[in-house]
Amino acid sequence: MMRCGNGELPIRRWGLRLVVALVLWFGVFGTAAAQTSDTAAPKPLTAAVLDFQGRGVGADEPKVLADRFRVELFRRHVYRLLERSEVDKILKEQGFQKSGACDQSECAVDVGKLLGVRRMIIGVVSRIGATWTVTVRVVDVETGEIVQSAVLDRHGTIDGLLQPGMADLARKLQGGMDSLQDTASESATKSSSFFPKTDFARPFRNIGVGSSAAFQVGLLPSAQLVPESRIIHGLALSLPWTRNAYVSGVQLGVINQVRIRMDGVQLGVANLGGDAGFLQAGLVNKAQGLSGFQIGLVNVSDHAQGLQVGLFNYARRLHGVQVGFINVAPQGAMFPVFPLVNGSF
Predict the structure, then answer these.
(1) Regions of the chain with pLDDT less than 50
(2) Rounded to an integer, what distance in angstroms lies between the CA atom of residue 49 and that of residue 123?
């Protein structure tokens, strides 16, 4: 009676074991992901600090203060800062001549778009009588708005601005960030829509403009038509692999890689982006920040605003919907791990 010839009982036993294994797996994995969501801190936004401008002071002092301010800001992990050498390299290759006199929001936005960062930090060093003042402003590259500012005054010599002045100034920005803490993500969470408002025409507006290139083709990152650091406004063909700092348009091929930001469409076997919007479609899609859609077998994003459709979907912070066999979202979703459909409902 216990050993059935038709194998019905062994099948039932294996079925029961499979159900128990799945329950235990989801339970353990879900608990670990939930603990991670409680302790994990959101990654800072990308930013670049331009040399400070001087008013009534020498030419070298503002640059020295800006270098010290970068160090103090980096120590506090307020932003993910682009190296000054990388900033100078990109601006030089783009032929941008205003970097030495950029203390206005409009100029900062232009530079920020070339660099592919989310925030630009500009500053002015000035003196009135025996009082020294440093004013810094944080500009949102997308909107052009000043989202944060800080002022530091010191009486006496300029030495007090360097130490401990720049450390105090960095702490002021850090204090403001603690109160704001990723304003974009919080406003997205309060939004009634899962999907961001996307300007579909944006990737194609500046094709062939300025010193950027309208076309890219390559066999490998070391053997491609246009240097990696230049901006592609148009079409990039990966035959099989191209890598660029910034692409605005369409990237087609086997391995499509963008280091900083992709605005438009990536279609390939593997799509690897920094910040990606609007669409990644392939077997494997990976983005630091997603604003739009990922469609593939495996979709991975640090923070995703939009839709992920695939066999396995992962977003450390989710504001949107995941549709797949396994959906993982430690922060923002209803469940840290959930099959079929998960989202921030």
Answers:
(1) 1-5, 23, 25-41, 99-100, 178-211
(2) 9
- Measured CA distances, 150 to 122, 135, 188, 220, 293 (Å): 11, 6, 26, 45, 37
This prediction's pTM: 0.47
Domains and CATH numbers, the chain: 46-181 (3.40.50.10610), 202-343 (no CATH)
Q: What percentage of the chain reaches a pLDDT higher than 90?
A: 27
Q: How far apart are CA 12 and CA 310, in angstroms?
A: 30
Token pair of 299 as six digits: 């979709």
Q: Mean of the per-residue pLDDT values for the chain?
A: 77
Sign (positive/negative) of CA torsion 154, 53, 170, 161?
negative
State residue 52 phi and psi, 5-degree precision: -70, 150
16, 108, 293, 307, 316 from 184: Cα distances, Å:
46, 19, 18, 18, 16
Give the side-chain half-sphere CA count within 13 A for 255. Answer: 11
Contact 297, 284 (CB under 8 A): yes
Whole-angstrom Cα distance, residue 193 to residue 344?
Answer: 10
Strands lying side by side in the sheet with 337-343: 223-224, 213-220, 231-281, 284-295, 298-328, 337-343
Distances (CA, A) of 3 to 9, 10, 16, 46, 90: 7, 9, 17, 65, 74
Q: Between the CA of residue 59 and those of 41, 96, 102, 105, 124, what are the distances in Å?
A: 39, 20, 14, 21, 12
